[in-house]
Design brief:
5 helices; 46% helix; stress response; GrpE; alpha+beta; protein-folding chaperone binding; unfolded protein binding; coiled coil
């Protein structure tokens, strides 16, 4: 016999002993065993459960999945809206600073180019807010509405003005649709002291 030919033939027992830890499973099985394993059979309902029970459980699981998807979509929209509103509030603060800069400028010392530049930037910011659906709220003379107004002080109502009305706006408010981005800070009228009802 030819010894070289004997080496070419593989010995199954010797090959199995050469299997490394990466090739063997936890139970000692090899990848070759997995390939010859029988396919997994579909689950058979346990005794006492009918096909109708399985169908009912499947429908419930499907409904729960749809509810989860709807809830996740609502939460995603809420996070997006909250993020947009946080950025818009920062832009509103910048607009407040620009308006204060314009109001504080001294026409005698401020160059015309500077004044025009600040006015142009201020108008650009206002236009952007309008495009984003943000509108300013000036509630002077309207009834106090806690959804859109923040009372910082109560003042005696002048004659002919009912209590609970907005007498003056200390800081302009902004809203987006029916939601207040920043409530207007206002002075609210009250019944004058010593007056009889």
């Amino acid at each position: 016999m030819n010894p070289a030919a004997d080496e070419d033939r593989s010995d199954p027992e010797r090959d199995a002993s050469r299997v490394t830890g990466a090739d063997a499973g936890d139970d000692g099985s090899t990848a070759r065993d997995d390939a010859t394993a029988a396919p997994v059979e579909p689950a058979i309902p346990p005794a006492g459960e009918s096909l109708e029970d399985f169908r009912d459980r499947w429908l419930r699981a499907e409904a729960e999945l749809q509810n989860f998807r709807r809830r996740a979509q609502r939460e995603l929209e809420q996070v997006r809206r909250d993020s947009e509103e946080a950025v818009l509030l920062e832009i509103i603060r910048v607009l407040d600073d620009l308006e204060r800069a314009q109001a504080a400028r001294d026409p005698a010392t401020a160059p015309d180019g500077w004044s025009q530049g600040v006015a142009l930037v201020t108008q650009t910011v206002r236009d952007y807010l309008v495009r984003m659906g943000v509108e300013s709220v000036d509630p002077t003379g309207t009834r106090f509405d806690p959804r859109f107004h923040e009372a910082i002080l109560e003042v005696d109502a002048p004659p002919g003005i009912a209590p609970g009305m907005v007498a003056q706006v200390a800081l302009r408010g902004y809203r987006r649709g029916e939601r207040a981005l920043r409530p207007a800070r206002v002075l609210v009228t009250r019944e004058p002291a010593g007056s009889e009802r």
